[in-house]
TrEMBL record:
One of its GO terms (biological process) is methylation. This is SAM-dependent methyltransferase. The keyword Ribosomal protein does not apply. It comes from the Bacteria. Residues 26-196 form the Tetrapyrrole methylase domain. GO terms for molecular function: methyltransferase activity. The keyword Metal-binding does not apply. PANTHER family: RIBOSOMAL RNA SMALL SUBUNIT METHYLTRANSFERASE I, SAM-DEPENDENT METHYLTRANSFERASE.
Length: 232
């Protein structure tokens, strides 16, 4: 089987927020597909501190990975070895490259088992006050200034046309630059939710305001994990 395991969104989140079955599945196997080895080891230690780190067999699965790069792991799965799949934060396969191995498992008739856990994208949406019936996750916006401006304006246009909430994110060290572009290129009355440090008991910040109000009170988002939502 392939266990789709959640990771915490904040290291400060209480273990009591998570289902105890996460630990059970981690204890069941030493083999994991991970986006980042250092993060994965910390997550595994968080859920199962008694598990020996030296026993772990970690296979890198990031946006550059192809099936040929993880052939050894796939061969083990075909021979009956259970694996876990861990994202850097939240649920695997959402804003995460884990779908590569999930797709392969379906093709090889290997059981895929999703385990409940937090998703920053869904938590931001339900905290925004915006339409949760119809929404679009747009991933990361373009880096190039002209393309980013066009994309931001297209998102607002799509929102006005369809009513679909528009969710997107940025690499944390670019958050402040993205925020400045949002307040520059969006209409003053457009509504924007910023959900930062989700699930951090001390530093969580979730606010929905109009752009003209955000211009008066700019948050500090540098190197802070955040999700942005445009909505009505």
């Amino acid at each position: 089987m392939l266990f789709l395991l959640p990771a915490y969104l904040s290291e400060n989140t209480s273990i009591n927020h998570f289902s105890p079955v996460i630990k059970d599945y981690i204890m069941q196997t030493d083999y994991f597909f991970v986006e980042n080895e250092k993060t994965a080891r910390k997550v595994i230690k968080f859920f199962a501190p008694e598990k020996k780190q030296s026993d772990l067999k970690l296979f890198l699965l990031d946006k550059y990975t192809e099936n040929a790069d993880i052939k050894e792991a796939q061969d083990r799965m075909l021979n009956g070895q259970d694996f876990g799949l861990l994202s850097e934060a939240g649920l695997p396969c959402i804003a995460d490259p884990g779908n590569l191995i999930v797709k392969w498992c379906h093709e090889k008739n290997i059981r895929v088992m999703p385990i409940s856990g937090p998703s920053s994208i869904i938590l931001a949406l339900i905290s925004s006050g915006f339409n949760g019936q119809e929404f679009t996750f747009n991933g990361y916006l373009p880096i190039e200034k002209g393309e980013k401006k066009k994309r931001i304006q297209n998102l607002e246009s799509e929102l006005q046309k369809t009513g679909y909430s528009q969710i997107f994110m940025e690499t944390p060290y670019r958050n402040n630059a993205l925020f400045e572009d949002l307040i520059k290129f969006l209409s003053p009355n457009a509504k924007l939710c910023i959900a930062a440090n989700i699930n951090d008991p001390e530093h969580e910040f979730i606010k929905t305001k109009t752009i003209k109000d955000w211009q008066k009170q700019k948050p500090e988002l540098h190197k802070v994990p955040a999700v942005f939502v445009l909505g009505k």
